[in-house]
Amino acid sequence: MSNLLTVEHVRRTFPRGGGEELLVLDDVNLTLKEGEIVGLLGRSGSGKSTLLRLIAGLSLPQGGSLSYMGTPIVGPTQGVAMVFQSFALFPWLTVLENVQLGLEALSLPAREMRERALAAIDLIGLDGYESAYPRELSGGMRQRVGFARAVVVHPNILLMDEPFSALDVLTAENLRTDLVELWGNGKLPLKGIILVTHNIEEAVLMCDRVLLFSSNPGRVASEIKIDLPQPRDRTSPAFEDYVDKIYVEMTARRVERLRQQQAQGAASIAMPLAHVSPNQISGLVEALAAAPYDGKADLPDIAYEQELEVDELFPVAEAMQLMRLADVEGGDIKLTHMGKRFADGELNERKEIFSRALIGNVPLAAHIRKVLDERASHSAPKTRFLDELEDHMAEDAAEETLKTVVSWARFAELFSYDDDAALFSLENPT
Amino acid sequence: MKILPPVSIEARRLLPSKWDLLAAILVLGFLVAFADASRFLVHPLSSITGKGLVLNPWDLPGYALRTSLRMLIALGVSLGFTFTYATWAAKNPRAGTLLVPLLDILQSIPILSFLSLTIVWFLSLSPGRIFGAELACVFVIFTGQAWNMAFSFFQSLRTVPPELEEAGRMFGLNAWARFWRIEAPFATPPLIWNMMMSMSGGWFFVTASEAISVGKTNIALPGIGSWIAVAIAQQNLPAIFEAIAAMLVVILIYDQLLFRPLVAWADRFRVSSEPSEEAPQSWALTVYRRSRLLDLMTAPFEQMMRWSYYWHPPSFGLKAAVREVNSRLSDIIWYTVLALLGTFAAWRVGIFFVEANFSWSDAATAIGYGFITLARVMVLIAIASLIWTPIGVYVGLRPKLTAIIQPVAQFLAAFPNNLLFPLVVSLIVFWNANPDIWLSPLIVLGTQWYILFNVIAGASTMPQELRDAAENFGVRGWLWWKRVALPAVFPFYVTGAITASGGAWNASVLAEVASWGKNTLHAHGLGAYISDAMTAGDFHHVLLGTIVMSFFVLVVNRILWRPLYWFAERKFRLT
Fold first, then answer.
1. B522 and B405 share one domain
2. Within this chain, do residues B406 and B532 fall inside the same structural domain, yes or no?
3. Does one domain contain both B517 and B409?
């Protein structure tokens, strides 16, 4: 069977201030065959949405090649249609006009345009809403308009950029099953679908193949084929096995690197820190310490029960690993001795433990504290540390890392920060 | 940031209500009173004419300083007016029904008419001294700034989230504390943007009102405006360029030391949990914040404010029923006072018109000229829109270009374009061109930039995903403009066009009559009509022209701009 889409060695960078470049995608390979749904799964910042925009021809790669049915993609391609996370409906057009927009661009005769648009509206279950404006519709109905608008141009490839993530759980599930059903019945005028998501279960539910992306820069870390017949049952053991397997794959690599660095004492201030609040850490520690986990939990289980998305859970788990409040291994998370003490402690004891964890395990926090201790004024401007971080990482990563350290240090009362004056100091406001 | 238009957009009805009529009569009565007073006052001033002003470049910084000080004082007064008037209008529904139409009438009056009608009265306050003239100048700038700011503040106060208000009540904050802690901060970001708009207009009027002759009264207050007037009389082009350069520097300093810090500071008052993508920065603000001296200076003031919050008015344990009677009583008093005021104003206006002995042909002439100026304003706004909308969209969709062009457009809007009039006029004189046509562009010279930077702002806030969607579905060319770009910027364009049109009417008073040395160019129009009457000291015709112009402005706002604004808000606003 021929490939609908081939992506080879694709590389994409974004210009940064000061002539630097931020590498977002590096050596990405991907194929889409007829009749397939391929999932791109990864955390935010793994460049999967960037890849989707490249496939849609909305931007161009710096290296490598993309081709659609054998012809290189050099701009927006007829035959590739996209569904957007925020729906991207035009608020000044009615449902019918929104759906017709893509047909107008094809300069079809008015009658044919209308017939095709009505057929698509009918297919997606929007009958009766033709003259409504998007603002009058619920999120689920809006995304249906997004699907109808994409399907009406009879594309060969449908690109979906986290299409369900802006919807509530019930609506999202309803829309997913409808879509899988239409696809299974062969009613959709499509040959292949690419779905970008950060929801592991969604990927396992809908896709034939899932590509796991690693972040910074985005690469395809591994590929998992989902060999389950449709419709799939979320509660079947085989389904859960796939979910577990993906969890392990997604955590293993990063945590392993972190652990190695810590073991070798190679952890440096140049480690980017994702924004995780002390409250999130406390919350997860408490949940872990309590029944039914009693200090140890399966990541998919705790994600499901605490209603945490992968994007929310992983950074917290990693921060806990970094501060040695927990050990993450093989899809499990386990509280350390320190973590247990933290869970049992009163607020002041928690602050104490947190403070020691920061000094001992987060080199940047220790570094800032040291600089402040040494200076006569016990204060230092933000730029002092920001410049230092920017030697090692991109501008916004540096900002985020500093912001994270500030929120941790505030909780631990390690040092304080005045945002108005952009000044670090040891003073506590009285 | 959203800029609110400087006209009343509250009520959506088309026809004037009885409150609009009362407001019109009151304002008219007020103007008539001034005009009347002017006739009986002696013309006391001859010492402040421009004869003493020598075009010495070394004096220019001093003149620039005086001009900008006038501006600052007027800004302070406008702020005081905004805080009291707009708050009163928003808090007291009874007062609001009158105060809002009143504001709407006031904003429709050409600013220079205020000057010509009130200057003699101001001068009489301190005969023979410069003080009265200074007051008049500040008053004119005030009238150019205050309405817009008050509208913005009023509209913000009406949209304070109820949960903030309720939180304030639950913590027992008194009305005064609620105002400073909740309402004023909430209304600050739009107020500051509208203040910048006001300033832009302000520079225009400060320079226009420094040198002015009303009848036999000639005034030339030391400042950039008088400098320009003398330079025009002497046909001194280098001096005009020097003044332009000085003005550029002044505006730049204002921008860097006052507005940029204000905008950056006001960012903290935005009520939204989302951080702004690009928090506004200001080096000056950082300096202010780190300065201990400033802390020391403001500390006592802050302490005073804090004390004032603790103060609770004694409650007399009034029962609701008592308050009810009370409110009915104040209703009676309020309406009686209004009725008396209205009758008195109507009577004065009546007397004035009888005395003035206007013939129907007088009114017909003014109205005819009104239509000419209307046509001029509309045609030029249309031309400016045709030029600047596509350019604004093009620029707004390119962040790098926006970062360069947007401040330039704002700067150009702030620049008092009347300083540029002599350059254009000298060319018209040189080529002997038709003033009816070639003076026209002057009325949108300054205000066209409002269209440009509003459209840029609109295009740059268009979500990336919408643009991607259009591109993905192959929407290009005219279809793209029709379905995507123009609808997306439309609400912003309307705000820009409303501001531009208001500014154009005002500018017509200066632009339809312009001189270069001994050559005075005349275009036909209501602006020229008012301007001529002003020069002749003919208050009756100034007032007649003013009334006609206000009427035109109000009607155009009612039947064109306000419906367009709501249509745009309803249909095209991206939220």
1. yes
2. yes
3. yes
Contact B573 A58 (CB under 8 A): no
Number of domains in chain B: 2
Do A92 and B572 make contact, defined as CB atoms within 8 angstroms?
A: yes
Tell me if B426 is assigned to some domain: yes
Instruction: Give the chain A residue nearest B569 (alpha carbons).
Output: A92
Q: Is B9 among the domain residues?
A: no
Residue of B nearest to A85 (CA): B465
Which of B265, B472, B475, B486 is the best residue to mutate to test the A interface, defined by the most A CB atoms within 10 Å of its own CB? B472
- Whether B326 maps to a domain, the answer reads no
Q: Which residues contact B460 (CB under 8 A, 6 or more apart)?
A: B396, B397, B399, B402, B406
Is A422's CB within 8 Å of B286's CB?
A: yes
Closest by Cα among B219, B185, B25 to B112: B219
If asked whether residues B370 and B260 sit together in one domain, one would say no
All structural domains of chain A: 3-246 (3.40.50.300), 278-425 (1.10.10)
Pairs of residues, one from chain A and one from chain B, whose beta carbons lie less than 8 Å apart: 68
Are B131 and B238 contained in the same domain? yes
Distances (CA, A) of B46 to B137, B219, B227, B251, B537: 16, 8, 18, 31, 15
Q: Are residues B394 and B492 in the same domain?
A: yes
Q: Do the domain assignments include residue B259?
A: yes
Domain that holds residue B455: 358-575
CA-CA distance, A413 to B300, in Å (whole number)?
Answer: 30
List of chain A residues whose C-beta atoms are within 8 Å of the C-beta of residue B468: 53, 56, 58, 82, 84, 88
Please tell me whether residues B255 and B370 are part of one structural domain: no
Mutate to test the interface with B, among A101, A379, A382, A419 (most CBs of B within 10 A): A101
The span from the CA of B497 to the CA of B504, in Å, is: 10
Cβ(B527)–Cβ(B509) below 8 Å: yes
Residue listed under structure tokens 């009291």: B84
* Per-residue confidence band for A428, with pLDDT thresholds at 50, 70 and 90: low
Select from B225, B244, B273 the last residue of a domain.
Answer: B273
pLDDT, one tens digit per residue, over A245-280 is 888 888 777 777 777 777 776 667 777 788 889 999
Question: Which residue, B252, B273, B294, sits at the end of a domain?
Answer: B273
pLDDT tens digits along A206-237: 999 999 988 777 888 889 999 988 888 888 99
> Which residue in this structure is represented by tokens 């016990």?
A378
Specify whether B268 is located in the same domain as B411.
no
User: How far apart are alpha carbons B194 and B185 in whole angstroms?
Assistant: 15
Query: Which residues on adjacent β-strands are paired with residue A424?
Result: A380, A417
Query: Does B469 contact A at CB distance below 8 Å?
Result: yes
Task: Say how far apart CA B240 and CA B272 lie, in whole Å.
Answer: 47
Q: For residues B229 and B131, is the Cβ–Cβ distance under 8 A?
A: no
- Distance of residue A187 Cα from the nearest chain B Cα, in angstroms: 21
- Mean pLDDT over A336-361 rounds to 90
Give A43: exposed, middle or buried? Use CB within 10 Å, 0-12, 13-18, 19+.
buried
Task: Decide if A110 touches B, using CB distance below 8 A.
Answer: no
The arithmetic mean of pLDDT across residues A335-342, rounded, is 90
This complex has an ipTM of 0.76
A90/B contact by beta carbon, under 8 A? yes
Residues 6+ apart with CB under 8 A from A262: A322, A324, A361
Among A122-126, A420-424, B48-52, which is the least confidently predicted range? B48-52
User: Would you call B415 exposed, middle or buried from its count of C-beta atoms within 10 A (0-12, 13-18, 19+)?
Assistant: buried
Kindly report the CATH number assigned to the domain that includes residue B428. 1.10.3720.10
The answer to whether A56 faces chain B, any CB pair under 8 Å, is yes
Tell me which residues of chain B, numbers 486 to 545, contact chain A at a CB-CB cutoff of 8 Å.
Answer: 487
State the Cα–Cα distance between residues A385 and A376, nearest whole angstrom.
Answer: 17
